[in-house]
Design goal:
By secondary structure, the chain is an alpha+beta fold. It contains 8 helices and 12 strands. 30% of the residues are buried. Bound molecules: dinuclear copper ion.
Length: 314
Amino acid sequence: MTPHIQSIIHPAGIAAARVSHLWWVMFWVCTVVWFAVAIAALIAINRGRRAASAETSDARVSRSVTIAAGITVVTLIALLFESVLTGRALNGLRTRDALRIQVTGNQWWWDVQYENPTPSLRVATANEIHIPTGRAIAFDLLSNDVIHSLWIPNLQGKIDLVPGRQNELWLQADKPGVYRAQCAEYCGLQHAKMALVVVAEPESDFQNWLTANRASAHPPVTPDQQRGKDVVERGPCAMCHNITGTLAGGQSAPDLTHLGSRSTIAAGSLPNTRGYLAGWIADPQHVKPGNRMPAPGLNDEQLQSVLAYLESLK
Ligand code: CUA
């Protein structure tokens, strides 16, 4: 699917369209004001030179000041009005049949849970959110450590993820596509490498994705993949990562059950290819210094098997 340029002025949903509209209104109003002020300043300089000796009329100066102040007040009130209207329109997205997705901020990755009253129908993933187009989405936003902020510029404005409280973000994607999103609140050393991918797709594709992601991890097929699974289950990986259907049940790091189907690793920092994955696992502190993943200390053979296994987790 087409990756879109990450930009608020390329809206792909109704909420983002309102934000973008407000931005353009402010841009054009400020442009007109800037030119008006520049022209007035030039005229004043010119007049001042010509009539340096002539007497200035106090009445005329005070009339000009009143007119300028009046225009300023009217312009600011108009912008305020437009801004309030935009806020109301963004709130208008709330509906009961929205798809609810819980997103939890962590230093420095995103935990994503598709809620469902039936536990077996829940889906857990990380750093990649799939949503259906043409349907309201409600994000329940939480944080496990510090304040983060979820910003998907093509789809909606940003909102903070605050420890100890739940915030909500509503949006709707109208155009299918891949949208880059990122943390927009400084949250520590690797704030810049706390990105994520939002994939908006037609409802049927989304349902297929959901069904595929409800399943347990694919069992290993080749002996190499089996060796990789053994290393993951018996080594340090399983302490933090979960792979549903295996002995790996850690809950403090990104869920890896369907890692092979995701497009990035390390929270949008690197493409999910074998080479980058190898570099990440061999030395996570080189890619994102300060992150919570220590080098698991695998030998070459173990590393290759782990890569083969992780790649098979489609
Ligand atoms: Cu999380 Cu910045």
